[in-house]
Amino acid sequence: MTRTQDAARQFLDLRRIAVTGVSRTAGGHGGNVVYQRLRETGYEVFAVNPNAEVVEGDPSWPDLRSIPGGVEAVVVATRPEHAAATVREAVELGVTHVWMHRSVDRGSVDDEATAFGRAHGLTVIDGGCPLMYGAPSDRAHRVMCRLLTLTGRVPRTV
Predict the structure, then answer these.
(1) Is 17 helix (H, G, I), strand (E, B) or coil?
(2) pLDDT value of position 35
């Protein structure tokens, strides 16, 4: 097992990151917040939403396969029932890292998708948020990380 903070560092060392579930109507949606912050901190980030051509003023892609040049990592910010399809696609495309976004609720975490990804060699972070670690983090997310780790919502290892 890998400590989550080490897996987070490896994830954030990658520069081409897709965020699934970025909404056309931002309104504080977790996927949009992650997308915006990664973009602001210098990542080459790609919005994935099969129902939108543009989100956050940028092109949106219907799936990972459609992103020109591919990606190295994926943040899953959809409902959990969509996570398995994203993880299967990531495996097919050779993506090495997947992060299933989770805050105080279940978020995007799907246990079967997590197991499938790990069985196929992916590093899967099944909880928490990329904004809790490294350069994209802010004080509120770091505090939330500590609290959610204590309650088990952010895994200690992956």
Answers:
(1) strand
(2) 96
Residue 71 CA to residue 68 CA, distance in Å, equals: 9
Q: How far apart are CA 88 and CA 106, in angstroms?
A: 20
* Whether 34 contacts 47, CB under 8 Å: no
Domain segments of the chain as ranges: 4-150
Each residue of 128-152: pLDDT tens digit?
A: 999 999 999 999 999 999 999 998 8
The DSSP code sequence of 49-89 is -TT-SEETTEEEESSGGGSTT--SEEEE-S-GGGHHHHHHH
- Which pLDDT belongs to residue 28? 66
Backbone dihedral angles phi then psi of residue 82, each to the nearest 5 degrees: -100, -10
57-90 pLDDT, tens per residue? 999 999 999 999 999 999 999 999 999 999 999 9
Q: Which CATH number fits domain 4-150: 3.40.50.300, 3.40.50.720, 3.30.1520.10, 3.40.50.11260?
A: 3.40.50.720
Distances from the Cα of 125 to the Cα of 24, 28, 51, 141, angstroms: 25, 22, 26, 16
